[in-house]
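Cross-check.
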Amino acid sequence: MKINPKAKLWLVISVATILLLVGLTITMDNRRTNLWLSEFPSQTIYQFPPNFLWGAASAAQHVETQQNTDWTAFELDAVENGRSGTGELPGVALSGHIKDIDKYSAVVRTKKTNYDEMFDVDLSLAKAMGHNAYRFSISWARLFPHQDMLSPDPAGVDYYRNILASLKKHKITPIVSLFHFSTPEWFWFEKNGKRGWERDDAIELFSKFVSSVVENYGTEISHWCTLNEPMTYIFNGYMQGIFPPLEQRSINEIGPVVESLLRAHGAAYKIIKSHGELHNTKHSVGIAKHTRAFEPLRNWNLMDRLAAKQVENAFIWDFLDALQTGVLTISNTNYKVEIPEVINTQDYIGINYYGRYFVKTRFSDLANPEILFKESTQLLNEPCPGKTNLSLDLILFKSEVTSIFTLSLATSLKEFITELILPEL
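Predicted model, tokenized:
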């Protein structure tokens, strides 16, 4: 029986493609996240080394009285329009919704944790727990509640001066974040057809805020975090639509925002370092990077394994690579831009670790794999590596964390664990 030449060619191409995928899956181990374990000494008492920073973290929008921010606008709008639902699966939010926000009184929604009145008590409790460090964010909107302000609001300046005085009293080291998801609402007013981080004057406006922070508090702060979890912000705000600005773009459309955040970091780094040189003050500047272990949901599935690596590269490495090389490349897209001013603008890497995601591909839509929590896979009756028992969960947790720690090895940077969630015991 003769085989049609076209059919023969198609068969050869298909076999070659399958072999290529198999070869890539077997050989394409991500060298930057190979697991490595060091010896753990067996002893009765474990002590932190000298000058070890041990503490907690917060964000202004989480704990402070509501300011005139994009997040406050989102919160008010969600309540007013009854958008307080959530997704059917654990960890899956609904665009435009804030789960159960309408179950809290207007006072609680406005004052949050009553931090404005209780921060000194909170910090005294932290000190009693052995904390010697505290990471918190300074609200851009509290210092600049209105656009076109030439200088920061005096009440806002005093507010953070009082917090820093309380930290000094309790001998707690401040670690300050400059962007922890929220920005002034006016930052999102359209200008020349652009909003937020895509405005032509975005870096100029952010730089004015950073300069004001440094001018007022620079001699009291040594550790700075310019951006908290930039790719989490991009993913949730511009792709999933669950953070302001509540957009749902494809991965091909996020490049300009990522680029702007990188430029914002670079500008902040230079402002802080210039202050240090002028005042003979040593400043350590970096970002906090949300990191997770991305694993194939079905380890036997070649596409799940390839997709897990690609998702990891996009979520963890694209931003870090840009800070190392000065070139931003968005994985799985044609987006590429040179940003030379961000090279060598990172003294440390902050690691925010929250666990595992499982990646599942669909043959009908390979470009958009599902990213699932372990609990989601259980509801879907999908097998996953963490469904057996506590001991295995703890072993996997240890492996995940040691995997994430290779970030500092790959980037040759000092590391801080700026956020960490432990497995439930």
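The first helix runs from residue 5 to 27. The CA atoms of residues 226 and 265 lie 6 Å apart. Passed to J.P. for a second look.
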